[in-house]
Fold this protein.
Amino acid sequence: MTEPNIVPNGVDLAVPMPYFLRDESHYVPTEIARGGWGPSISGHVVGGLLAAAVERAVDDPQLQPARLTVDLPAPTTLEPVEVHTRVQHERRRLRLVEAVLIQHGTAVARGSALFLRRGAQPDGQVWSHPVQMPRLPIEEDGTHPSLFMRTYGWGAGVQNPDPEWADTSGQKYTWLQETRALIDGEPLSAFTRAAMAADVTAAIANWGTNALQFINVDYTLTLSRPPEGPHIGLAALTHYSHDGVATGSAVLLDHKGPVGSGVSIAIAHPGFRPPSADQLAR
């Protein structure tokens, strides 16, 4: 449901297929929306649809998205989806918005987003853990290769090796570039791009010596500002698990530096089918 997207057999990667098509009040998933845990929509696609919905409910440009929590109580099947949105709470400095994905009359995913009003930045400095990321995956001529994910330090064939970064079982890093439209004909906003990237927190924080053994149940994205540019980076920060329950976190970055964090709650569930390095490089 919520780990790196698997490209189904038979899909032409050269065709710029969006994840959803509009059909009146419904969103119809295309083949590319399928995730890696079975015949259901990938969690990063679900999170992106929820983010796009809550963002449409905020018409004040001074309110910026600061937090999105995505709950995934049931698989979102590869069928048309309805999206219901409502403002739960509104004050001068904040707005709390909820979006729900409905299939066959049942809620299959839910997003709660907090928007905060921008203001003056206080003086002084506050300590934060330093993060060193691999270089941006940009060619020497300045072009951006067409890729969905480039990973570092995963100790598995899912990565595109970089000689400057050891292939170990230690800290994991990822640069993401979403190359497809979420909804046909609609550009990706910075917030939606971040929401789709934050879903990978579960994979980057929970990947171990036996690959990925946990499935995401929910994840939370926090932002101090919207990311800039097409690339979003993640650096694994923590992983703790006991009795099949895991919590993990990662730092989110753009080309200027950290912009927020992702937190994932997951349960033990082996069986994820990782994409090949060739798929991730496209």
